[in-house]
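ARCHIVE CARD
Drawer: 12
Card no.: 0347
Subject: one protein chain, sequence and derived structure
Cross-reference: see card 0346
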Amino acid sequence: MMAVGAGAALGAVALLARYAPELDALLLMPPAPPGRSAALPAAPRSADAAAPASPPSASSAPGAPARPGEPTASEEGSPPAPAPVPRGAPASAAPPVDRFADDPAARAACPADMTLVEGDFCPSLPYVCARAGDGIGHGCAEYARGARCRAAVDPRRFCIDRHEWPNRVGELPRVYVDWHEARSLCASIGKRLCRRSEWILACEGPKRLPYPWGFVRTPSPCNIDRAAIAFDIDAMVDEETREGEIARLWQADPIGSHPNCISAYGAYDLAGNVDEWTDNLADDPGTSRPATLNGGYWGPVRNTCRLTTGGHGPTFRFYQAGFRCCADTVDGVVTPPPRPFIERDREKDGVYD
């Protein structure tokens, strides 16, 4: 495996060469003066965002010890804390009821910090834009209803983390991890990095929605479409300035800040907040792109369930890249193994629409 420094440098070069369409907003900005980063003003936080919190430390690099509060094998089954009341809500208002938290089938099949996904994955589903948008990075304000699966469906039954790592309400999602580290962290607590197909199914739900909440880009209950801030690649690569640069760019919200950003299967923040690593190698052992990113992050990018960024290698790390874990069910229900999910003819583009 490449050294961490070399991996970061190569990732930075790859980023400048092509970071997929979602960074067009940044790459098209006028260059900043030497040694400085041009920045757009941060977008206002959404109504259901939690109070500002300090961004995660960049010291959580591969090989570093887990930060306080991160889950360990002994903590995996502990129930999540209740979601916080959205900012601006009356003090007496109770948080929205999570109808999945006490679902008997999910509780029998999965640990308390995970939710059950049981449905048919469609390996070929077109997203047809019904109404164009003017936002850089997504370009579609509304997708057409009634899209039909173009291939035989694949029955799936598995568990997925309810939240982004460390999957604990009130904490900040972990970022600046590469694909290898994401896999290792999941394995350390008896889970695995989600297959790309699993992540897509958990996001689309049984109705195969382009967004966890439906077909229309706005209004959204998730942390998306905040103004882009230009990054300083030199500050990001340099270990002495990396933490400060991540703090400057940070616009993710604490876990549990968006209680209505939930998929039909009970997973939160699959769209927006932070990008999430997925395991394309598990779906397609012959792929040249094992490491994939799904869901987009907080910026004005494409956050659809099926969009996959495949243009970065497994050693790529950046300020918005995080992950969550999946696992097999534990209730003894026999489920056929998943079939391969192959889209190799589109790998050359770096983005699987």
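Annotation on reverse: The longest helix spans residues 4-17. The CA atoms of residues 129 and 248 lie 34 Å apart.
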